[in-house]
Write a structure and sequence with these properties.
- Two copies of one chain form a homodimer.
- Helices cover 43% and strands 16% of the residues of chain A.
- Chain A has 327 residues and is of the alpha/beta class.
- The first copy, chain A, starts with a helix and ends in a 9-residue tail after the last strand.
- Chains A and B meet through helix 4, helix 5, strand 2, helix 6 and helix 7 of A and helix 4, helix 5, strand 2, helix 6 and helix 7 of B.
- Strand 2 of chain A pairs antiparallel with strand 2 of chain B, so a sheet runs across the interface.
- The structure holds a DNA duplex (30 and 30 nucleotides).
Chain lengths: 327, 327
Amino acid sequence: MSDVARLAGVSIKTVSRVVNDEPAVHPDTAERVMAAIEQLGFRRNLGARNLRRGSTTGTIGLIVEDVGNPFYSELNRAVERIATSFGRQVLTGSSEENSDRERELVLEFCARRVDGILVVPAGLQHGYLVPEMRAGTPVVFIDRPAGDIVADTVLVDNLGGTIEAVTHLAQHGHRRIAFLGDSPDIFTAAERLRGFREGCVRNGISYDESLVSMGTPTPDSVGNAVKRLLDGPDAATAVIAGNNRVAVHLLRALAHAERRPAMVGFDDFELADLLNPPVTVVAHDVSALGHAAAELLFARVQGDQSPPRKVVLPVHLVARGSGEVAP
Amino acid sequence: MSDVARLAGVSIKTVSRVVNDEPAVHPDTAERVMAAIEQLGFRRNLGARNLRRGSTTGTIGLIVEDVGNPFYSELNRAVERIATSFGRQVLTGSSEENSDRERELVLEFCARRVDGILVVPAGLQHGYLVPEMRAGTPVVFIDRPAGDIVADTVLVDNLGGTIEAVTHLAQHGHRRIAFLGDSPDIFTAAERLRGFREGCVRNGISYDESLVSMGTPTPDSVGNAVKRLLDGPDAATAVIAGNNRVAVHLLRALAHAERRPAMVGFDDFELADLLNPPVTVVAHDVSALGHAAAELLFARVQGDQSPPRKVVLPVHLVARGSGEVAP
DNA sequence: GGTCACTATGACAACGTTGTCTCCTCCGGG
DNA sequence: CCCGGAGGAGACAACGTTGTCATAGTGACC
């Protein structure tokens, strides 16, 4: 900046005025300064600016499990859209479902003085956030609630959605329904399992623990579970996939199976309608999830001091065929 | 920091020493300082630190067309992985295939003094980058080359891949092959079209322009193109989809068609193997693309001054069935 | 002609850190 | 008893900006 000032024959304060479009600069002077800026390729240092102004940094942090997962990338996109409309940029990070990594990312973002943080929490302990939140960094939890603190949260109706899935299968005559879920340490997985149980009760199906398999989904883990659940005289006639990744592995496992059970997935996914049979899912609007969370965050950034809110977004069953297969 | 110093009864410089793990601090003093930091919830301001040290900011910028597109989110993930290994964080932005937006994002990132920029360019003019690159911000172009400047670039073998696709179809007896591509303004689309033409030539098929349809893919645009190309006596018996989004729209359009042509897609996608018939694609390793670009960027960040490099990653045809349908 | 308001500009401090330099104290060796 | 050196700690400036205040010049008005 001082180089620009020297070249234009003005003080650095005048350069500052020009780059900030402040009035009270003579047009001729402004033009000289602009020319110097152009010639030197000057770009003002936003870090220094934010430091001096004590203002916001114009960035928010988004922490998800894996930015490469289509579910989270859609969320990312929705968040980015809102952030852009508020003139902010997005720092992203993948926690890899590891609470230490989550914490590391959050604290790093705080050290960078992001204006706010959106997080799909990996862990259950969030006490470390208290000082940060007290220091003025708003935090909104997405898809899963905070472990041990009260904070803004945006969820989907996991319980209701799974109940609906069970009911759908029951209506098509199924009494032996299996549930394949992610690790029960994950809130959504636990909640959906709870919904599964509740759904069984409501439909007069006795809940059978041997038809449940929970755990981080891999092709092998899901494949083995499928073998176990669909074999024998008491085999399941229908399966519920607890999330999009379970669904993918499940579909692949079923592709080579002789008997195809009915199936309902939680989370919609691209091309679900083109498979054979088309996959019935409990769908929810991931974009809406991101929008709601980001809107809430920016309300906080702009000073909204109201008590922490908990938003639960609706889900709806999209019947495409795979849930209507007879037992 | 001065609050911490006051509480611990030391100077701020000593606090600085403690938070930076500098030696020559008495253990007792260090402990007092730590306690004060804990009590006040102090977190050092990385912006101020970077300003003072004149060091790198520890961030890189990644600009893609749409962070929500699975192709780019996988890229994002690969980049993040490398960035993490270099202790950097990633700022992301979606250009939405708009060159003004691309420019805006790049300049904003530069103003934030990112250590480097990875960009899937939307436009063809990159002169605006010259001052930034001269000022020391390395830039690596991904998936598409820079328009009018010389810079590091990582591409995939678009030409070879499409030739391979045509050859595959020709080997299965097809002579009337259609090509559905994205807007020809996009480098990859133009290049794949070139590969299509070249593939026709090599396989002794006369190139027929009426079998080509280029443009931003929407369900309608692709649907109409399918109707046009697959109707009449001279209808195409095979179709090549120019990218993953064209492929998705194409599959949906074909689902309701009476006659199903053979098909090969460029870009692999999840569940391609589970469709009926399984979709043959020209696959490439998106993660490798991100890795290579990020590795190259960090080499530059760390001072590699060698001439700009151009890396072309191989592609390979994954025959799953849809390309082997008879004419 | 003197005062006033207004325009255009600059000097200086401050934002929160850290690098450099200096100072003080304590200890061992001559 | 003095001196040199090491260990521990602080004062101060500087990074690149911008907010505040001060200053000089220019008309306009009484």
